[in-house]
Amino acid sequence: MIDLRSDTVTLPSDKMRKAAYEAEVGDDVYGEDPSVNRLEEKAAEILGKEASLFVTSGTQGNQIAALTHCRPGQEIILEANAHIFLYEGAAISAFAGVQPRTIEGNRGAMDPREVEASIRAEDVHFPETGMICLENTHNKAGGAIVPIANMQDIYTVAQKHQIPVHLDGARLFNAAVASGRNVKDFAQYTDTIQFCLSKGLGAPVGSIIAGSSEFIHRARKWRKRLGGGLRQAGIIAAPGLLALQENINRLAEDHLHAKQLAEGLGQIEGLEVVNQVETNIVMIEITKETISTDVLIDNMKKHGVLAGGMGPNRIRFVTNLNISKKDIEDALSIIQKVL
Ligand SMILES: *Cc1c(COP(=O)(O)O)cnc(C)c1O
User: Fold this and answer.
1) What is the CATH number of the domain that holds 267?
2) Looking at 195, 211, 246, which one is the last position of a domain?
3) Domain count of the fold of the chain
4) CB 59 within 8 A of CB 261
5) pLDDT tens column, 216-252
6) What is the residue range of 185's domain?
7) Which of 73, 74, 239, 256 gets the highest tally of CB atoms within 10 A of its CB?
């Protein structure tokens, strides 16, 4: 199967399995797992933050950020198609007790003036604004890179109003690699960050949240409350560390494959690429009226290509470290054949 459904489907390499097998471990709730500690130090260093915390998933990392930054009854500002808003089961409301205030972005980037206008004034009727969330790359916008200048402008607004900024950077390394910038250049314009080890970086489990030492100290307690305090977690942290050491730069290959896929798909009659492909996500619209998304996805599957449906006439492809140039060529000829 050529699995282009997501960058989460990657399986751990032999080297990662070996790292897990050989990992030095201890009880991480006591802070005694050397492999977890190494991963957290390395992640903080790469991001240019004081400290970081290994969490079970991206969703858990984002929720810990909301719980740590906000109080119940507050409001958070985020983009209208943000993962935190669309795909986290309303956890910000269920757990942190905050309500979302959404702003429609342009390819995932919110207008800083709109962000400022959405910050609540002091009034007995109003909730307080507890946090501003950014997402980079922006998943629903097709892996769009939110420009550093946009992050800087929003961070300036946030600082003026003393509101913390959290970055849902599930794919932040994709943004950095694709724009040829250091990840710190993005990270400097946010107080806290969540990024996924288990997406394009190819680790089997986990995410990192990073920020000030004081933030991470409080976040650690929220992680424990949520049941995310793991014991000999070095078993899963060791492949995560390997992912940071070896898999960041190779994201460029995923991006190249995504561009090749987009180019090929664009040449197939009856399909149209609808996003500007900057990283590892390609979205297409089926313009041929005689075939539905479900039927095309089914036909592709029968011939060995997996992709994800996005409503009645859209399909999404995500390149990842299991995909080769040959897979892209094969996928294109299969799609052409079954359409
Ligand atoms: C995948 C993703 C998450 C959630 O990560 P999980 O590990 O699946 O919980 C959060 N934000 C964005 C933008 C994502 O793409």
Assistant:
1) 3.90.1150.10
2) 246
3) 2
4) no
5) 999 999 999 999 999 999 999 999 999 999 999 999 9
6) 12-246
7) 239
